[in-house]
Specification:
Blueprint: H1 8-41, H2 44-75, H3 79-112, H4 121-144, H5 147-155, H6 157-177, H7 182-214, E1 231-233, E2 239-241
Helix pairs in contact: 1-2, 1-3, 1-4, 2-3, 3-7, 4-5, 4-6, 4-7, 5-7, 6-7
Protein name: Phosphate-specific transport system accessory protein PhoU
Function: Plays a role in the regulation of phosphate uptake.
Subcellular location: Cytoplasm
Length: 248
């Protein structure tokens, strides 16, 4: 009976752990949505609320951490149960980081709101909507334990990376054209980087879901589309990528 629970209370603890992860995911989804809305509407009050609410996400992360440690110590789970318990801790950590990035976007919104609007900010909002959709999908895949859906989500990270690289180039151009744009564009650049990192953590969660269901990590190497680290501006004001298509 290696995969059957002989202690009903352990089943209840597993359900409680699942419920905590979903609750944390819901809070993080709200944080992302509100940070994007605050940026789009230049709403400083909402941005401040997002920053203040980050503590709720952190508190739930600590609670899940304690749940996992208690279950490992008292239940000593095996096989799929062990994967589920350990994976829950990984997912909670990734969600906590996504929440942190949403709060960072809100903090920079507060700074950006005292500067003139810059055009690339619209691109950040478009990127944010994609990341929001990916986080929503990955939480659905977790709820359904759907490995195929998780694998499909993993492939979407390239879309986020490529959009980030495109925004990076656009922001470089804006800053070169007029140094007065540097402050605002720098905040927008960090916001877009926060979103790119959210995509990475959502992809981590997708890989963890795949591991829970299949008992192994995806065989294919994760695709990379972020070329910002090897992108430069020439003396003629043209962007230059010092790497091949894989960013090597």
């Amino acid at each position: 009976m290696s995969n059957e629970h002989i202690v009903s209370s352990f089943d209840e603890e597993l359900r409680a752990l699942h419920k905590s992860i979903m609750q944390m995911g819901g809070l993080v989804e709200a944080q992302i949505a509100q940070s994007l809305q605050a940026m789009n509407k230049r709403d400083s009050q909402l941005a401040s609320a997002v920053v203040a609410n980050d503590g709720q996400v952190d508190a739930l992360h600590h609670e899940i951490d304690e749940q996992v440690v208690r279950m490992l110590a008292l239940r000593q789970p095996m096989a799929s149960d062990l994967r589920t318990v350990v994976a829950s801790l990984r997912i909670a950590t990734d969600l906590e980081r996504i929440g942190d990035y949403a709060a960072n976007i809100a903090k920079r919104t507060l700074a950006l709101n005292v500067s003139p609007t810059v055009k690339p900010a619209a691109g950040v909002l478009r990127m944010g909507k994609i990341v929001q959709s990916i986080v929503n999908d990955v939480l659905d895949a977790y709820a359904d334990r759907n490995a195929d859906r998780a694998a499909a989500i993993r492939e979407r990270d390239t879309e986020v990376d490529e959009l980030y690289t495109s925004l990076f180039r656009e922001l470089l151009t804006y800053m070169m054209e007029d140094p007065r744009n540097i402050t605002a564009c720098t905040h927008v650049l960090f916001m877009s980087k926060n979103l790119e990192r959210m995509g990475d953590h959502a992809t981590n969660i997708a890989e963890t879901i795949y591991y829970i269901v299949r008992g192994k990590v995806p065989a294919e190497e994760r695709a990379k589309g972020d070329l910002s680290s090897v992108t430069a501006m020439t003396e003629k004001g043209e962007t230059f990528v010092a790497a091949d298509s894989k960013g090597n």
